[in-house]
Specification:
binds magnesium ion; membrane; Rossmann fold; transport; 11 strands; six-stranded mixed beta sheet; binds adenosine-5'-triphosphate; alpha/beta; nucleotide-binding
Length: 285
């Protein structure tokens, strides 16, 4: 499988009053033309890993790595201007909270059309038609009304789908999707997953799919990295996630409610300090 992205020894550090906090600690993995899941409990470093790839960690936070290579080019060696081109065209990210990513004083339509025209130099009327089509593709009902609306008039699930539509306009080589379907109901979730799936299968896009939903990741992804306290503790084939060996992964699986084995109380995850001390497992292939 051809490697799109190669991340080696990634650290994300935040200076605090009590010293430096390491949110991501020496993570290595590769991404091919595949659906790579990242799972782990809240605070385990999933979002920071995604943002670090695009160098979107705000100061005083710092990103360090041996390299973060996009088809052989080290993103860490690029200028801020070169990075902006990468962000606009080659790697897109759907942020966990889409409300913060949309401009609150611009209509949805103006934002999508602007994104489209930036990449194609299309006329306004072509951009309008294409934008409506993009909204339809992510199952937005009444796209003409949504084009005229402002972000605060959208529900959380609509905001997520609008972001997904915008991120797919430049036809990126890599999409980093941070909890992209968590605010969606099951039927819309399926449609959004199908869109991403098609992009991977038909256009050879690489997808990093961040989620805390182990069942969803197991169904949808090809490979999964399991993160704990800023490190990868286990890597497995997605369809074998339920056979995972690491006690943390087992704990995450056992704390999921199951219809076939109902229990009065769900298990509380017991942690072992050794998990966060063990070196990060490599997710490279
Ligand atoms: N600006 C910051 N300053 C200090 N620590 C931070 C900052 N931003 C994030 N962190 C810490 O980095 C760690 C990893 O955060 P991250 O957002 O990657 O978690 P996550 O796995 O995405 O969690 P969730 O499932 O809740 O989204 C957390 O412990 C968080 O508190
Ligand atoms: Mg997160």
């Amino acid at each position: 499988m051809s490697t799109l992205l190669d991340v080696e020894n990634l650290w994300v550090k935040f200076p605090t009053r009590n010293g430096v906090f390491d949110a991501v600690r020496g993570v290595s993995f590769t991404l091919g033309r595949e659906r790579l899941g990242i799972v782990g409990e809240s605070g385990s470093g999933k979002s920071m890993t995604g943002r670090a790839i695009l160098r979107l960690i705000r100061a005083p936070g710092m990103v360090e790595a041996d390299h973060i290579s996009l088809e052989g080019q080290d993103l860490l060696k690029m200028s801020e201007k070169e990075m902006r081109d990468v962000r606009g065209q080659r790697i897109s990210m759907v942020m966990q909270d889409p409300k913060f990513s949309l401009n609150p004083v611009m209509t949805i339509g103006d934002q999508i059309m602007e994104a489209y025209r930036l990449h194609t130099n299309a006329s306004k009327s072509v951009a309008y038609t294409k934008s409506v089509e993009m909204l339809e593709a992510v199952s937005i009902r009444d796209p003409e009304r949504v084009m005229r609306a402002y972000p605060h008039e959208m529900s959380g699930g609509m905001g997520q789908r609008i972001m997904i539509a915008m991120m797919l306009i430049p036809n990126p080589e890599i999409l980093i999707a941070d909890e992209p379907t968590s605010a969606l109901d099951v039927s819309v979730q399926r449609q959004v997953l199908d869109i991403m799936d098609r992009l991977v299968k038909e256009r050879g896009m690489g997808l990093i799919f961040i989620s805390h939903d182990l069942n969803l990741v197991s169904d949808f992804c090809d490979r999964v990295l399991i993160m704990y306290a800023g490190r990868i503790v286990e890597v497995c084939e997605a369809d074998k996630l339920h056979e995972a060996k690491h006690p943390y992964t087992r704990g995450l699986l056992n704390s999921l409610p199951r219809l076939d084995k109902p229990r009065d109380r769900l298990e509380v995850l017991q942690r072992d300090p050794a998990w966060s001390e063990a070196p990060s497992v490599s997710g490279r292939i």
